[in-house]
Write a structure and sequence with these properties.
The protein has helices at about 1-30, 35-60, 80-115, 135-140, 155-160, 175, 205-210, 215-230, 235-255; strands at about 130-135, 145-150, 165-170, 190, 200. It is mainly alpha-helical and about 260 residues long.
Length: about 260
């Protein structure tokens, strides 16, 4: 009997290995990379299959009641297409969770770099220094000032963001109109600031394209802040510093828009 059990176990392991290879190929066919997620997932399924077969052998040898293996360790799919689709969905969720975490870490580094590289020294410009969520800034809007999105409302909407609560600052109306992202100015054609683009685009189109690229959203924020400083000098340095603090807290809580690349 022990010999029969040993032979059956060997055959079972071989069959399980074949089944795992079938799983692997099905996932590859669905575009899933042979990375950490696939390795860990297939190992988990293989371990459960082996435990189930161990229980089945214990039962066959009359030791079912004292078996240390679970009788429900593994159930093979009845619908393999649905099973593989579910695994694919699990991988996509894993990718998004990892990417969001990774993006947050990189974004915090970008914000720290902005603080270090921009001249944000305090000054007595006479301008009100106000930053906060857009609605908050708009509601507190001092006379002669307007709430200014960084980046623009159009970009935030395109990226599926809550533009009403996105970090913003207050600018004097005449300064607000000078920014490149002000209202109707976004529809004007201009020379691309993305080097590989030869065709002229509107400012809005250019910003949306940049924001959709990995790391592009934070680059766009940097460009928008530089645009404010180019048009207004150091008049809003304290507001920009507060904006960066609020932005960091917002990103830590909500993540980065548009960062959805696949981890291999």
């Amino acid at each position: 009997m022990p010999g029969e059990t040993s032979a059956r176990w060997k055959t079972s392991v071989e069959n399980i290995n074949i089944e795992i290879e079938n799983y692997k190929q099905a996932l590859i066919d669905r575009g899933i990379p042979e990375g950490k997620w696939m390795i860990d997932t297939l190992a988990k399924h293989r371990a459960a299959m082996l435990e189930q077969e161990g229980y089945n052998l214990d039962v066959a040898s009359g030791n079912g009641q004292i078996s240390t293996n679970s009788p429900t360790a593994y159930s093979y799919p009845t619908d393999y297409r649905a099973f593989y689709n579910r695994l694919s969905d699990e991988f996509r969720q894993y990718s998004l969770e990892y990417t969001n975490s990774n993006s947050i870490e990189n974004a915090i580094k970008d914000i720290s770099a902005l603080r270090e590289t921009l001249d944000l020294s305090s000054n007595d410009s006479g301008c009100i220094q106000l930053a906060g969520g857009y609605i908050e800034v708009r509601d507190e809007e001092p006379i002669g000032y307007e709430a200014h999105h960084i980046p623009s409302k159009a970009v935030l909407i395109e990226m599926g963001e809550d533009w009403k609560n996105w970090p913003s600052i207050a600018l004097k109306k005449e300064d607000h109109k000078e920014t490149d992202s002000y209202a109707g100015k976004q529809s004007h054609k201009h020379e691309s600031f993305i080097p590989i683009n030869e065709q002229k685009q509107t400012y809005k189109e250019e910003c949306i394209e940049l924001a959709r690229r990995p790391g592009g959203f934070m680059q766009l924020i940097r460009d928008e802040i530089l645009n404010i400083k180019d048009k207004c000098g150091n008049k809003y340095n304290d507001a920009i510093k507060d904006y960066l603090d609020i932005l960091e807290r917002h990103i830590k809580k909500n993540g980065i828009p548009g960062e959805k690349v696949i981890r291999k």
